[in-house]
Amino acid sequence: MLRPFRLLKLLFALAIAFILLTQPSRAGGGSSALHSLLTLDETRGWEGVGRLNMGARSFCTGALIAENLVLTAAHCLFDPDSGTRIDVAEIEFLAGWRSGRASAYRGVRRAVVHPGYGLDTGSAEQRVRYDLALLELDRPIRSTNIRPFAVHEKPRKGDEVGVVSYALGRADAPSLQESCKVLARQSGALILSCEVDFGSSGAPVFVFEDGVAQIVSVISAKARVRDLPVSLGTDLARPLARMLDLLDASEGAFSAPQPTARLMTGDGISSTGARFLRP
């Protein structure tokens, strides 16, 4: 296995190509590395993760971080073929989508993409660093069964993490991979050992702290170094704070009062019931 600093050098200094993970709706396939959450018991606590349908074009994964806010990847908001921004009116969040039904269905009122993100500009490292978007739902999700996730801003190298996502060949139920690790951090980007696939864009990366599932990153892309599959994620601390400020600043453009986003941090948050699977 490559040492982390060597992995960083290969990924960034040598500019190894990475693949954005927006999933065209027409594709199929599968991954044996993940455990499908098919039953009510398995999905309990994970209902705040949902599938984001980007019109008829593609889908991504998103996670509820407040009763009216969904966190996902910025590149999900752009048409994968033309590169044009997708109208928020075409985006739907399906919370806890499983076997043709969702725990809640919501449209999107507005979306904020990190201003440092450019689909075709900057280095690969910069695109990963700022590959974040916040979606404000048209109505808050207020349900005891659908809990927003707390955000943990500073994952450490070596942390064990898990990813819950929808993706290629498993678009109809969430899947959990629980054996990933943070291999390294580099200039606001995370290198993870998680295997991801198309549709995993925007998928939340979780760590458990004091029994609480907290989001530490968002999946941006997959890469391969020799025979080692890795995934790239975004460090949340500064980029997320910037987007929350932008969301607040743009509120004045709307004439009617709207729900206030209440972002949760790990401090004082009780468990959602989400858990990693253990033998």
Summarize the structure.
The chain is mainly beta.
Which tags fit this structure?
six-stranded antiparallel barrel; 16 strands; mainly beta; disordered N terminus; 279 residues; Thrombin, subunit H
Notes on the protein architecture:
The protein is mainly beta. It has 4 helices and 16 strands. The strands form 2 sheets. Strands 11-12-13-16-15-14 form a 6-stranded antiparallel barrel. The longest helix has 13 residues, at 237-249. The chain is globular.
Multimeric state? single chain
Binned, the helix content reads 10-25%
Report strand order across the widest sheet.
Answer: 11-12-13-16-15-14
Distance between the termini: 26 Å
The CATH class, by name, is Mainly Beta
- The gross shape turns out to be globular
Question: How many DSSP helices?
Answer: 4
- Relative strand content: 35-45%
Q: What's the main sheet like?
A: 6 strands, antiparallel, barrel
CATH superfamily: Trypsin-like serine proteases
Just name the CATH architecture.
Beta Barrel
- What is the number of strand segments? 16
The topology string of helices and strands comes to HEEEHEEEEEHEEEEEEEEH
- Secondary structure category: mainly beta
Could you tell me the CATH topology label.
Thrombin, subunit H
How much is the average pLDDT?
76
Number of domains: 1
